[in-house]
Automatic annotation (TrEMBL):
It comes from Bradyrhizobium forestalis. InterPro entries: LACTB2_WH, Metallo-B-lactamas, RibonucZ/Hydroxyglut_hydro, Sec-metab_biosynth-thioest, WH-like_DNA-bd_sf. Keywords: Hydrolase. SUPFAM superfamilies: Metallo-hydrolase/oxidoreductase. GO terms for molecular function: hydrolase activity. Residues 125-142 have a biased composition (Basic and acidic residues). Residues 113-142 are annotated as: Disordered. CDD domains: metallo-hydrolase-like_MBL-fold (cd16278). It holds the Pfam family Lactamase_B. This is MBL fold metallo-hydrolase. Residues 51-227 form the Metallo-beta-lactamase domain.
Amino acid sequence: MGQQCTGRPMSDNDDVPFNRNFPLKPGVVEEVRPGVRRVLCNNPSPFTFTGTVSYIVGTGNVAIIDPGPDDAAHAAALLEAVRGETVSHIFVTHTHRDHSPNTARIKQATGAPVYAEGPHRASRPRFESEKHNPESGVDRDFAPDITIAHGDVVEGAGWRLEAVATPGHTANHLAFAWPERKFNFVGDHVMGWSTSIVAPPDGSMIDYMDSLERLAAREEDLYFSGHGPEIPEGPRFARFLIRHRKAREASILHRLAKGETDIPTMVRAIYIGIDPRLTTAAGYSVLAHLEDLVARGVVATDGDPVIGGTYRMANA
C-alpha cells in the first residue's frame, strides 16, 4: 500500500511515503514545535496505530485539540502537561470514539468551552437494507458548546486557528489550520502512517476526495495528524493520497472488468496480505469507492449500493 519514509524528498513518481516511525510513549508530553505539544494516548490498535494523539496549542493560555477516547489516564496526562496554565479552548476534529469522549473530562476539569462542527451525523441516510456498521465507532453523546464551520476563526493567546471543513472520514470532520505558522491539525483526514478509513454511511469517498483537494490547495505545509508522526510537505502528501485513492479505484474497475462480483471478492483481489482484523474496514472502503462510481454512472448494482451487493461495469 505504501512504503516506509526514507527521509529523501518526495517526487511525483513516488508511492505514498508512509512513515511508521513514531517513538512517542503514552503519557509523555513532547514539544514537537514551539507552541505545539502532543501527548499520546495508550490505545494502540490496527485502526489507531500507536494511539490517539492529543495536541496542546500555545503557552500559558492554551487550547487542547482532540482530548481522545474515554480514558482517565490520558485525561490526567493532558492535565498534568498543562499544570499551571489555563486551558481556554477545547477543539474536536470529529466524533469517533478515539477522539471525542474524553472531552467531558477535560471540560469538567478546566471549564473551557468545546468547539466542533457539531454532533455526529452520517454522510447520507442509511439504506433500509443496511445494518449498523460497527467499524464506525461513533460517539453519539458528543455535543459542542460552540459550533463552527468552514472559514470560522478562533483566536487565543498567541495562536489563531481557522476551521477547514474536511468531511469524508466523517461528515462533521474539521481540520484546524494555523495559517501564520503554516501548520494544520488534520485529525484523521490525513495520516502519515496509513490511509484513512472511509466507511459509508458515516463516511463518503466523494466528500473525502473533495476535502483532500481542499487541503492540497492550502498553504499550510506541516500537518499534525490524529495518529502517528507529523507530516512534512502536507499539500504534496495530500496529492499523493488523491493519486493513491485513484489507483485503488482503478484496481476496483480492473476487477469489475472481469465480470460481476461482490465486495469480499474485490477485497481479496486488491488488499493482498492485509491484516485480517482490517478486512471488514477494507470492505467498507471499497464500498465507499463503489458508491462514488455508481453515482458517476461507471458501475451498476441492483438496488442501493450496499456492503452485501454485487457490482458490475455499467456498460457490461
